[in-house]
Amino acid sequence: MLDDDELDSLIDAQPSERERVKAEHEIIHKAASHPVRRQLIKEIGAFGSTKKDLLERTELDEKVFKYHTEFLINGEFLNIIEDKYFLSDKGLDLLANI
Q1: How far apart are CA 81 and CA 22, in angstroms?
Q2: pLDDT tens digits for the chain (98 residues)?
């Protein structure tokens, strides 16, 4: 049985490099494999886009739009700057591969 110090160190342990890379690949796969996310990434493109323009061009429901843009933001593919959506470097790499 683990004592308190061993349990604390187990809880505080950071993932290994292999685990980190695997998790990163899973996020990239989830972003690239979903048709709505691919559509959003393509519509935002290299120059960015406003929420209003994206909603008009994609014809997405507000809730669906929010869900997928939050996924892309949390995955570090997308940034919002002054009410405009821009792809991060990671997002631009994804755009080049879809």
Answers
A1: 29
A2: 556 666 677 667 777 889 889 989 999 999 999 999 999 999 999 999 999 999 999 999 999 999 999 999 999 999 999 999 999 999 999 999 98
Amino acid, res. 94: L
Identify whether the C-beta of residue 32 lies closer than 8 Å to the C-beta of residue 42.
no
Confidence (pTM): 0.80
Burial of 22 from C-beta contacts in 10 A (0-12 / 13-18 / 19+): exposed
In the chain, where do the E strands start and end? Answer: 49-50, 78-81, 84-87
Question: With left for phi above 0 and alpha for psi between -120 and 50, is residue 19 left, alpha or beta?
Answer: alpha
Sign of CA dihedral 94, 66, 25, 84: positive
Cβ contact 77:88 at 8 Å: yes
Residue 45's nearest CA partner among 85, 13, 1, 15 is 85
